[in-house]
Amino acid sequence: MKPHMSDADSGTANITPVGGNIFLDLGFPPDEAVALKAASDRKIWAQLAANAAAGKDNATAEEAPAIRQDERK
């Protein structure tokens, strides 16, 4: 019997594209995946805003409003 090869062994990987929903990739039902991604996005944007307000070196915080607008399209 042939042993099972993992993705690491075979050199393949499942990569979620930018703007994709990792929660769908993980097998969550579509409605729950959308809700989880929205909650995750809110936490990320809140942290970026907090970093920017605290003056932390975070180039992404400056880009966040533009990126967020693009995601809404």
**Which regions have little confidence, pLDDT < 50, spanning 5+ residues?**
none
What's the SSE pattern? Answer: HHHH
Tally of discrete structural domains: 1
Report the span from N to C terminus.
50 Å
Shape: flat
Structural class: mainly alpha
Q: Estimate the helix proportion, in percent.
A: 55-70%
Please count the helical segments. 4
How many DSSP-defined strands?
0
Output the radius of gyration.
Answer: 17 Å
| Beta-strand content | under 5%
Mean pLDDT, all residues = 76
Main sheet specs: none
Quick rundown:
With 73 residues, this protein is mainly alpha-helical. The protein contains four helices and no strands. The model has no long low-confidence stretch (mean pLDDT 76).
Secondary structure blueprint with pairings:
Layout lengths: L6 H4 L11 H4 L4 H24 L5 H14 L1
Model description:
The protein is mainly α. The chain has one domain. It is built from four helices and no strands. It has helices at residues 7-10, 22-25, 30-53, 59-72. It starts with 6 loop residues before the first helix and ends with a helix. The model has no long low-confidence stretch (mean pLDDT 76).
